[in-house]
Amino acid sequence: MSNFKPCEDEHTEYKAVLNNKFEREVVAFLNSAQGGNIYIGVADNGTIIGVSDPDKLQLIISHRIRDNIQPSCLGFYDVYFEQHDGKTIIHIMVTRGTEKPYYIKQYGLSPAGCYLRVGSGVQPMPPAMIDQLYSSRTRDSLRNIVSPKTGEHSFKQLKIYYEEKGFSINSNFLENLDLYTSDKKTTMLDTCLPTVTVFPSKWPSMPGTTKVELVENEEYGFSSIIKPPKECWINWILKTAPLPKSPALPNDCKNG
To answer: Is residue 192, in this structure, part of any structural domain at all?
Structure first.
């Protein structure tokens, strides 16, 4: 006999059939603290119903997770079938994700796309929590990764920028910006901010809001990302500012 619990809980979700609520269940477990398990072919009370054509259903489930959930959660779930009471069910094991918030691609980073597991159900994620998780994910994605580059790095352009803004530069300047780890290793942020970076920078200009017509494509080589926006802003001001009017000539000059 099956040993399934007679009810769902914060780590267990039963589904008699694969339906259009499947993605939000996966998203909720990805956004949770511990993940969970989804069983297809099991009624809400734990009764084994089974599924037909489990191989095809496994493929459909994998494709739906891959195509409909962002960011990619490859490696954070597994899909396989189990035999219970002579019937086949699909077991989706979902671990907690590391790039929260996860969301349904169709609805984006909104309460309609982001979900949390609360007890045996799911709830839309509040906008404030979405913003907090997203900002934390973006900030942590580079500052906690040790850079493969070694040796001394020059941040002259970055220091000039801060000094122009009136900030004093001290010995802890780079550490405060998360450019170094606690053991003095440079983080991946150093690929963007040094005076000389590891990638070239190009800044295109278009006359309108579309990308159909390219007016200009400025190349700034391997310079710090601090420099191109400043240069582009200066160029834009110079090109869009109205030309100064010619000074009016005195009347005696006009008559002369």
So the answer is: yes
